[in-house]
Amino acid sequence: MRTILLIATKDLKNRLRDRSFFIMAILAPLVLAFVLSSVGGDAFSEGSFAPSYVVVDATGELGPGLVETLADAGLEDVSLVATPALGREAVDDGTADAAIIMDKAFNAGLTDTAQQLEIVVYANPDSPIARSVAESVAEAIASGISGSRLSLTAYVAAGNFLTSEVIAAASAATPLVTVDNLVAEGRILDGVTFLSVGMSIFFLFFSVQGGVIEILEERRDGTFARLLAAPVSRAVVMIGKLSSAALTGFFSVGVLVVATSLLLGADWGPVFGIVGLAFGAVASAMGVGALVATFSKNVEQAQQFSGIVGTVMGLLGGSFFPVAQGPTALRVLSKLTPHAWVMEGFSGSAGLGRASEALPAIGVLSLIGLAFGLVAYLRRSRLTGVL
Question: Higher-confidence residue: 24 or 202?
Fold first, then answer.
C-alpha cells in the first residue's frame, strides 16, 4: 500500500506542476461553460420559451376568453387588439411574435353556417416555434367551432329553426371531452448547470486519459522499465499509476463543482449524487482511456486517438446540447457513451433533488469502466511493453 501511495503521489505532483493540466482540466471547461451559458444557456432551461402574442377580435366575444385560456396555459404575454391592422403592426415592429386574427368575416361566419370561417395567423418568420403554437391555437379554435356548426347544421336540416337561443345554448353546452394538462416531475437542468456538467465531463476524459498516456511516455523514455525492475510487483506499479490518473480526475471535478457553483450559479444537486457520479465518470474515463492507449503504437498516436474518441463521445453523449431534442438514432447512440449517462445522472439527481436518482447512471458508468478496463488489462502488454 505504501508503494502504491508513493507512486501515485509522485505522479500526482508531476501533473499538478504541469500548467497544461490546469488549462485542460479546469480553465478550459470553466471558460467554455461561462461563454456558452452566456450566449445560449437559457435555451436549455425550463420556462425559457416566452413568446408574445396579440389576439385580434372583431367579434367582441371570443377574444377575452382566448386571452384568458392562453394565460392559463402559461403564455403570459398575450394582448387583445380590435383590428387586424393593429395586430399586423405589432408583429412587424417586433412587439409580438404572432397575431391570431379573427376579423369581421369571421364574425359573420359565426351566425351564417353557409359562410366559411377563416382564422389568420400572422407571424414573425424569425419565430418559428411561436408561429407553430399560434397555428395550433387557431386550429383548436377552428375545430371547436366546426363541431358546433356541424351540430347546428344538422339541427336545421332536421326541420328546426335556428334561433339566437339555440345558438347560445350550443355555445354554452358542456364539452363531451375535456383535456387536463399534468406536468411530470422535471428531470431538466437549467442552462448553466447543463453546460457546467457537460464541459466538466467532456474535459475530464482528456485529463484522466492524460494520466494513462503518461505510462506510454515513461515507457518511451525508459523510466517505466526501471520502475518495473524495482522489487515490487507489476500490479502495484500499475495501480499506483492509474490511481494518480483517478485522483487528477476527482480533483478537476471537485474544483469545477465549486467554481461553477460560486461563479456561474450552477446547481449540481445533492452531494452524494455528485460524489457517486464523479466516481462513475472517472472509472469510465479510465477504462476507455486505458483501452484506447493499448491500440496506440506511441505517445503521439495515443494522444490523437484519445482526442478523437473523447470528442466523438462528448458530441454523441450530449455534453454540448441536449440529445433528447435530437432524432431517435442520436438518442440511441448517445446511450453507448459514458457522457450521456453522466448527463442523465445529474438530470435526475440535480433536476429532482434526490441523489438516489443517480444510482442507475452510476451503475452503468461503473460497468463501462469495468468492461473497458478488463479488455485493457487483457491487452496490457501493448501498453506496458511487458507481459
Answer: 202
- As a whole number of angstroms, the distance between CA 258 and CA 252 comes to 10
Could you list the beta-strand ranges (E) of the chain.
52-57, 77-81, 98-102, 120-123
Q: Looking at the structure, do residues 239 and 330 belong to the same domain, yes or no?
A: yes
Question: Which CATH number characterizes residue 83's domain?
Answer: 3.40.190
8 A C-beta contact, residue 323 and residue 331: yes
In a domain? residue 184 = no
Give the number of domains in the chain.
Answer: 2
Inside any domain, residue 366: yes
Q: 265 with 364, same domain?
A: yes
Distance, CA of 93 to CA of 112 (rounded, Å): 35
Q: Are residues 87 and 144 in the same domain?
A: yes
Stated pTM of the model: 0.64
Q: Are residues 240 and 378 in the same domain?
A: yes
Residues sharing a CB contact under 8 Å with residue 63, sequence separation 6 or more, in sequence order: 55, 56, 57, 80, 102
> Does pLDDT of 150 surpass 60?
no
Three-state SS at 79: strand
CA distances from 293 to 142, 220, 275 (A): 63, 13, 27
In tens, the pLDDT along 13-23 reads 777 777 777 88
pLDDT digits 0-9 by tens, 327-365: 778 888 888 899 999 999 998 888 778 888 899 999 999
CA distances from 345 to 43, 126, 180, 248, 383 (A): 21, 35, 30, 21, 32
Coil, strand or helix: which one is 53?
A: strand
Side chain identity, residue 153: T
Of 50, 42, 67, the closest CA to residue 129 belongs to 50
Q: Is there a contact between 381 and 294 (Cβ–Cβ < 8 Å)?
A: no
* 344 and 216 co-located in one domain: yes
The 3-state DSSP composition of the chain as helix, strand, coil percent (nearest 5) reads: 70, 5, 25
Whole-angstrom Cα distance, residue 301 to residue 287?
18
Nearest one of 37, 59, 197 to 117, comparing CA atoms: 59
Containing structural domain, residue 85: 52-172
